[in-house]
Amino acid sequence: MKAPKPPSRRLERVTELLKREVSELIRQEINVEKVGLLSVNEVKLSPDLKSANVYLGFVGSKNQKSAAPDILKQKSKQIQFQLGAALRLKWTPILQFFLDDSVEKANRVMSILDDLERAGGPPPAPPSPPKT
Known about the structure:
It is built from four helices and three strands; from the N terminus they run ααββαβα. By secondary structure, it is of the alpha+beta class.
């Protein structure tokens, strides 16, 4: 079985450009008081450059987090239009936004590890069954 081909240099460059531009457009277009602080964590661009998944980090209240997807959906066409004007590409990728909870998960794991460290380490392993 063949290993998947690494992404082309062009795909990597366009992905980084999208990440920068989308980040700036979100900063300009979306009100921080309504949705909290959003940052672009990752952009996954399709090989044909026609669609992109944008993963956003989030800092804010629960109300802001629940409002963020709706506001992003409302503003996505406007952001995409402005992205098309800013980029010199044949196609402007269709953007889909996702809230990325990987930072929250990482913080939770770190909290659990801290609790274990304070408690004196991990619990002892269960005894292994006798070998017959």
